[in-house]
Write a structure and sequence with these properties.
heterotrimer; A alpha/beta (347); B alpha/beta (441); C alpha/beta (79); A: alpha/beta; Rossmann fold; 4-stranded mixed β-sheet; C: 79 residues; 39% helix
């Protein structure tokens, strides 16, 4: 039989209430508190219960996590569960922290449960399965059942269906699925239109997500002393594409030295970007990567200097995660040469 | 305008002495058909195959699919392209249903070409695994683009369209098994009971982004890059007024067969006079400069408003920067009070975590989603390959790759493949067939 | 990409044609270009005009890097 370990706070771990919230972490063989009910529904044996005070976890997070990871070292378990945490904020955050740490370290599936207003949901829903739970312990049996149902699927390595169907908070990822009813898109779109024009409720298949903003970096004080770098997502590369950057869905990038060149010559450089007509860029790569204009500004003393490499990748079909990773890989090179500002051209 | 499509349901296709149709059996005179194909001086080699659902066949690189038909009053199936220019959408044609002419490159593929599996796990990824295929596998002398990632596929596509015309001739003088009728009265002369229903338009954004001729969808033979949005009758689309092009990752493409059978159009016809008043189509386009995108959106909104539309459906043939045309068009329609629903696919990345469309707007509050272009698909080897499977890895098909540090090459030695949905032939079926949607996980 | 560079503290200006896309990916300093396949030089015009346009717009981008932007800004270009 599969084995499971459950995390609880001091209250559900039956150590005590708010006065015991500072208690450090401990591990116990067997079932404590909610572990008993969970054990009934789970297709696994709960071998241990881990307990930690909410305040201790909150103020000594790293220490608490490391101690618990130490407890788990060498123990056999196929799944790790925490909570349910209901609307208890500190408990929810603790469940999130420990689940994420256990998942990262031991690569086992983890499941917890929280009420939608628990701050732990926003903090951890992208990392772990958090079941939609009730707001208080009155919903204990129900929440434990829902945790167990997803956990059982994970134990059996069954396909996990979409968030709405399984009852977990969406982890912010979207994948294609085949509808059970096989209803073709033509029916769906015409029915949605009829509902919309008649003012009846309908459900969009693509909700518009909220945007993540980054604060604006401070400006360059003196351009005439500044070191400027050029980055392009337009796929301009030396004609032999030495870094084998893909023409779509790129995962690779390159940087190319422009010392001693006043502009990018046709025949030396070209674009490998498949998302647009390459004729104009191949004919004059400066149209996409304006090295010539930047060199002119350098000569005129308007900018201090042009960073000696330009950086290139392909934007089409490239995921945000890949683009972010590539940028992070470029950053140390830019920092090393004390680059002050970046021009990014995109196609 | 009234279009009658007389249907002949093809239950089987066989090679035989004479190209003819009888009792559900379509017989093709192979020699005659190959002679016909080879009349095109650019075709250097050609072979003909019959492929059916369930066959252990993988086709790649697939260029185009076309439904064989014949225009009863005479004239080309695709005016301005396979023959002289004439108006379409009114009159009669006969169609060989449940089958298509399919063009596959003998060797060379490109960004815009795709893959079809006729059986097994891969079959569910494209509508075309359900049809019977008359497959032309051919090569051309167009050496200038042999090694180009973007290919016009001019000769191969033309030979496919002509072949569809050629085969269609065999049912010209026969009585169809059933007839579909598509008829709309002039917009301002409809019956009072229809005039009181919500008025809706369908806005199409066919692929028109290449500035050089030879890649884009053609409207009566005219490159859609050179047009601004215009009002059209839906029958013109169903009756060969527009053909597919040779640009865009394949799962996002609309083949000529897709245009001839456009499910969203047919569904709107079904509702016409019952729940809505289908005014017609605003044929828009996709562009490569913001000003062009905004100009098209303005034209569409103005036409819709002037027609008195209450609602609109907007469909885009593409993803990536075409999303900007798509969203701009929806926003422009909403801004003039036309309640709009979009239909598209998404690009959320292999991990599903990317923003679904390159631009999003809160006014876009009703969308039907037909798939994720970047979903990874792994498929076992297939007994028979028509074309050259290596093209998927070698020639820059949008969903294939030569090397990948983690996933390895798209085409493995044993013939198994790993690819993105991008390369599934017309896989996202935004024209309306898609049984897929995209869900949050 | 833009967000990662900015997060690392680099002032960054994006030169792009699709302003709505640049806005939606969170670019804060944006300078328009003329099209997707040829952002900085229309092959239909002569070399001199292309150079003028490219020199001007790159100049606007450099200027943008010295501007204390308080919100997402699309900088105006003259040619």
């Amino acid at each position: 039989m599969a084995k499971a370990i459950l995390y609880l706070n001091q209250f559900f771990g039956q150590i005590g209430g708010e006065d015991k919230a500072d208690v450090g972490s401990s591990i116990h063989e067997g079932l404590i508190g909610p572990a008993m009910e969970l054990d009934k529904h789970l297709d696994a044996e709960i071998t241990h219960t881990v307990i930690c005070g909410d305040n201790f976890m909150g103020s000594n997070t790293e220490e608490a996590i490391n101690t618990i990871l130490g407890f788990l070292e060498g123990k056999q378990f196929d799944i790790f569960l925490a909570g349910p945490a209901f609307q208890a904020g500190r408990y929810g955050i603790a469940c999130g922290h420990i689940c994420k740490a256990v998942k990262d370290k031991f690569n086992v599936p983890v499941v917890t449960s929280m009420h939608e207003e628990n701050p732990g949901v926003e903090m951890f829903k992208k990392d772990i399965y958090i079941m939609k739970g009730g707001n208080s312990a009155a919903k204990m049996r129900q929440d434990i059942k829902s945790m167990a149902s997803l956990a059982n699927k994970l134990i059996r390595k069954e396909t996990i269906l979409e968030a709405a169907q399984e009852g977990y908070y969406s982890r912010g990822v979207r994948h294609q699925v085949w509808r059970d009813d096989k209803k073709p898109a033509a029916d769906r779109v015409v029915e949605m239109l009829i509902k919309k024009v008649n003012g009846e409720p309908y459900e969009t298949e693509l909700p518009v997500p909220k945007m993540d903003r980054v604060s604006i970096a401070p400006p360059i004080a003196d351009l005439s002393k500044a070191n400027i770098a050029l980055v392009t997502s337009g796929g301009i590369v030396p004609v032999d594409n030495p870094d084998r950057i893909q023409s779509a869905s790129a995962t690779r990038w390159g940087r190319y030295n422009t010392e001693g060149t006043d502009d990018l010559q046709k025949g030396d450089y070209k674009t490998i970007h498949a998302g647009y007509d390459p004729a104009a860029a191949d004919d004059d790569p400066d149209r996409v990567a304006p090295v010539d204009a930047l060199k002119a500004y350098e000569k005129e003393g308007i900018i201090g200097r042009l960073h000696k490499y330009f950086y290139s990748t392909v934007g089409t079909g490239t995921t945000q995660a890949e683009a972010a990773r590539m940028a992070k890989e470029m950053i140390p090179h830019l920092k090393e040469d004390n680059v002050d500002g970046i021009i990014l051209t995109s196609t | 305008m009234r279009l009658e499509i007389g249907n002949f349901h093809v239950k089987d296709i066989v090679f035989g002495d004479k190209t003819a149709y009888a009792n559900g059996i379509l017989t093709i005179d192979k020699k005659e058909a190959l002679d016909f194909i080879r009349q095109d001086e650019h075709i250097t080699e050609a072979e003909l195959y019959i492929v059916k659902p369930g066959d252990k066949v993988r086709m790649c690189p697939v260029k185009e699919t076309i439904e064989p038909r014949v225009r009863i009053s005479g004239g080309p199936l695709f005016p301005g392209y396979t023959g002289e220019l004439l108006p379409v959408g009114n009159g009669k044609c006969h169609a060989l249903k449940d089958c298509c002419v399919t063009v596959v490159g003998r060797h060379w593929g490109g960004f815009q070409d795709g893959l079809i599996d006729m059986s097994g796990e891969g079959a569910k990824y494209t509508y075309y695994s359900q049809l019977k295929h008359i497959v032309i596998v051919a090569d051309t002398d167009e050496d200038f683009e042999k090694r180009e990632q973007q290919k016009k596929n001019r000769a191969l596509r033309m030979v496919g369209h002509r072949m569809a015309e050629f085969i269609g001739q065999c049912v010209k003088d026969m009585a169809p098994e059933e007839t579909e009728i598509y008829e709309l009265d002039p917009v301002l002369k409809r019956k009072p009971e229809i005039m009181t229903l919500p008025k809706v338009v369908l806005v199409l954004q066919p692929q028109s982004q290449m500035e050089e001729d030879g890649y884009n969808d053609l409207l009566y033979g005219w490159d859609t890059n050179h047009m601004v949005p215009t009002f059209m009758h839906p029958n013109e689309v169903l009756d060969g007024g527009i053909i597919s092009g040779s640009f865009m990752p394949c799962s996002s493409k609309w083949s000529t067969y897709d245009f001839q059978n456009f499910p969203v159009i047919k569904r709107l016809y079904q509702e016409h006079g019952k729940t809505l008043n289908f005014l017609g189509i605003i044929m828009s386009n996709l562009n490569v400069a913001l000003e062009q995108k905004e100009r098209s959106a303005m034209f569409v909104a103005q036409i819709a408003k002037s027609l008195g539309a209450d609602g609109a459906i907007v469909a885009e043939e593409g993803y990536g920067n075409p999303d900007a045309d798509f969203v701009a068009c929806i926003v422009a329609l909403e801004d003039v009070g036309v309640k709009t629903v979009g239909i598209t696919n998404e690009c959320t990345g292999r991990d599903g975590a990317s923003q679904p469309l390159v631009t999003m707007d809160e006014k876009m509050n009703a969308v039907v989603s037909c798939g994720n272009v970047s979903e990874i698909i792994e498929l076992p080897p297939m007994e028979t390959v028509l074309g050259e499977l290596e093209a998927l890895a070698r020639d820059g098909l949008s969903g294939g790759w030569g090397t990948d540090e983690i996933l390895g090459p798209s085409v493995r030695k044993d013939g198994s493949i790993i690819m993105e949905n991008n390369a599934m032939f017309c896989g996202d079926q935004v024209v309306g067939w898609s049984p897929k949607t995209v869900k949050e996980f | 990409m833009v967000k990662e560079f900015e997060r690392a503290g680099f002032p960054i200006v994006q030169m792009a044609n699709l302003i709505p896309v640049a806005k939606s990916i969170g670019s804060n300093r944006i300078v328009p270009t003329i099209s997707i396949p040829y952002p900085l030089g229309d092959p239909g015009t002569d070399k001199e005009q292309q150079w003028k346009l490219r020199y001007h717009r790159v100049g606007v981008a450099l200027e943008a890097l010295t501007t204390d932007a308080k919100e997402q800004t699309v900088f105006k270009v003259k040619i």
